[in-house]
């Protein structure tokens, strides 16, 4: 059973605080308020795309300070990126003195844990630069007879696990760690490994009374364990969306967040109202994501109506890219549009076919890079098999069936993230050939119900023939 917080330290009545928040423009829905003001010590919030995750996280921090009477320094708030931390601070700035924002530990888990380790140990470690780390990984890879890319991926996953559960090649790990010692340095992942030792081997007590975790679906194993340890004697508030877990290459899988959702001592809340997009865009996204084996029948709904996504066919990628550049040049959307692709190479190719690589005011991002962003108009490039889903490694490489299914599920979540960035208009582009080779439309379009589309004038664009073509 979920335990509740003792409210004896409350400094402001809940109803008065809610009225004050509402008067200042915080128009939370009832399902959002339930999560914000919950008295439970462990809380997990499932927050689908556009459901107000940042608003709820900011309101929860204010609730702990202004209603329950915690000091800002009692809170540890972790975000996935520095940009997310900056946005959260801007939400809180009108409500808290500047000194309070400085006292509150808010930022990425790595940055906050490094600060704590330095305070506890009295030492300042030397961290490798990205270029130094790349050179060390490639050196270890050469000695093991594998590529630098393979070595980097293996080491990243190994160091994302609980210390002592090392699955990576012993020789690769030994060589790499030996090079780190020779440099007298840590890599980025060593920060969390050292804090794990601080918490669980040295028994140091964390200084925070409440831990708030943004993007909880992106926690890997060691991060999930650390979050539990940091909040063991305090409050834990986690918010995320397992359908948007897209960092498997860093060791993050939906199972860690889902494990928190299933704990009997955790109060679980669901945010199901999308405030970003209209229903015409939300419905295909719902249809797509239920095809994942780890999806649990969650459904997002929007408050307003609007048209569904557009699917456009082109003879080849050249025609696709030229059409896109013409549209962007003509409509001059200036920061309100995004072009999304699975890889940087696809973006560079499409950019090169504009006027001297002109971006026309649009934001050009990979699917991963679009996470946490939203735009009025979104264009998705190359919605074909091989790109969505995209397979790492050599074409035709044999894989274990379980691994194959896992890769497709993560790619489906990634395509879902890309689709859900759109506020008003979503255009999905399908070239029938790429580099002269015949393509097949991405299976994700059929799963989303977009393999046929009615056009103006009552004509139907027959898309299923491309999907079925071998």
Task: Describe what this molecule looks like in 3D.
- This is DNA 3'-5' helicase.
- InterPro entries: DExx_box_DNA_helicase_dom_sf, DNA_helicase_UvrD-like_C, DNA_helicase_UvrD/REP, P-loop_NTPase, UvrD-like_ATP-bd.
- The protein has 3 domains: 185 residues, P-loop containing nucleotide triphosphate hydrolases (Rossmann fold, 3-Layer(aba) Sandwich), CATH 3.40.50; 56 residues, no CATH class; 171 residues, Rossmann fold (3-Layer(aba) Sandwich), CATH 3.40.50.300.
- A 6-stranded parallel sheet has the order 3-2-4-5-1-6, sandwiched between helices. A 5-stranded parallel sheet has the order 9-13-12-10-11. A two-stranded parallel ribbon has the order 7-8.
- The chain is an alpha/beta fold.
- The chain is 42% helix and 16% strand.
- Helix 2 packs across helix 3.
Q: Superfamily at the CATH H level of the largest domain?
A: P-loop containing nucleotide triphosphate hydrolases
Structural class, from secondary structure content? Answer: alpha/beta
Rg is 24 Å
Strands of the widest sheet, in order across it, are 3-2-4-5-1-6
Distance between the termini: 53 Å
CATH topology of the largest domain: Rossmann fold
CATH architecture of the largest domain: 3-Layer(aba) Sandwich
Q: Point out poorly predicted stretches.
A: 394-398, 454-470
- Helices, by number, come to 18
Number of strands: 17
Q: Quick one: CATH class of the largest domain?
A: Alpha Beta
> Would you tell me the overall average pLDDT?
88
Which range best describes the helical content: under 10%, 10-25%, 25-40%, 40-55%, 55-70% or over 70%?
Answer: 40-55%
Largest sheet: 6 strands, parallel
Overall 3D shape? globular
Which percent band covers the strand fraction?
15-25%
Number of domains: 3
């Amino acid at each position: 059973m979920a335990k509740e917080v003792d409210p004896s330290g409350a400094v402001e009545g809940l109803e008065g605080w809610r009225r004050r928040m509402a008067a200042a423009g915080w128009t939370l829905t009832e399902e959002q308020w339930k999560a914000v003001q919950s008295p439970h010590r462990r809380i997990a919030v499932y927050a689908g795309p556009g459901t107000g995750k940042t608003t709820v996280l900011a309101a929860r921090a204010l609730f702990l300070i202004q209603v329950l009477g915690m000091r800002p320094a009692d809170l540890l708030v972790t975000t996935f990126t520095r940009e997310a931390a900056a946005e959260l601070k801007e939400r809180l700035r009108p409500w808290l003195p500047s000194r309070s924002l400085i006292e509150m530990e808010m930022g990425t888990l790595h940055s906050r844990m490094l600060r704590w380790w330095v305070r506890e140990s009295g030492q300042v470690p030397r961290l490798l630069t990205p270029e130094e780390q790349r050179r060390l990984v490639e050196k270890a890879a050469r000695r093991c007879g594998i590529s630098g890319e393979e070595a980097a991926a293996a080491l990243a996953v190994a160091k994302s696990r609980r210390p002592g559960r090392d699955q990576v090649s012993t020789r690769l790990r030994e060589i790499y760690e030996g090079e780190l010692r020779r440099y007298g340095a840590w890599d980025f992942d060593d920060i969390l490994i050292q804090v794990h030792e601080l918490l669980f081997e040295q028994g140091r007590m964390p200084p925070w009374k409440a831990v708030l975790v943004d993007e909880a679906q992106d926690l890997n194993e060691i991060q999930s364990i650390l979050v539990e340890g940091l909040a063991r004697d305090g409050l834990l508030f986690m918010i995320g969306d397992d359908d948007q877990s897209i960092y498997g290459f860093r060791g993050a899988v939906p199972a860690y967040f889902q494990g928190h959702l299933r704990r009997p001592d955790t109060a679980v809340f669901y945010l199901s109202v999308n405030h970003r997009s209209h229903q015409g865009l939300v419905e295909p996204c719902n249809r797509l994501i239920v095809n994942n084996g780890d999806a649990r029948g969650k459904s997002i709904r929007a408050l307003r109506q609007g048209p569904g996504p557009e699917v456009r066919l082109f003879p080849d990628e050249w025609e696709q890219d030229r059409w896109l550049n013409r549209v962007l040049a003509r409509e001059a959307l200036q920061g309100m549009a995004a072009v999304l692709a699975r890889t940087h190479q696809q973006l560079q190719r499409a950019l090169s076919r504009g006027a001297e690589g002109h971006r026309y005011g649009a934001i050009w991002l990979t699917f991963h890079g679009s996470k946490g962003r939203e735009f009025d108009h979104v264009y998705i490039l190359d919605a074909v098999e091989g790109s969505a889903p995209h397979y790492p490694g050599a074409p035709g490489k044999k894989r274990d069936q379980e691994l194959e299914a896992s890769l497709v599920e993560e790619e489906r979540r990634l395509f879902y993230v890309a689709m859900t960035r759109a506020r008003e208009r979503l255009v999905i582009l399908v070239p029938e050939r790429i580099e002269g080779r015949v393509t097949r439309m991405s299976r994700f379009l059929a799963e989303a119900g977009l393999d046929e589309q009615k056009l103006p004038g009552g004509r139907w664009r027959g898309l299923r023939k491309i999907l079925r073509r071998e």
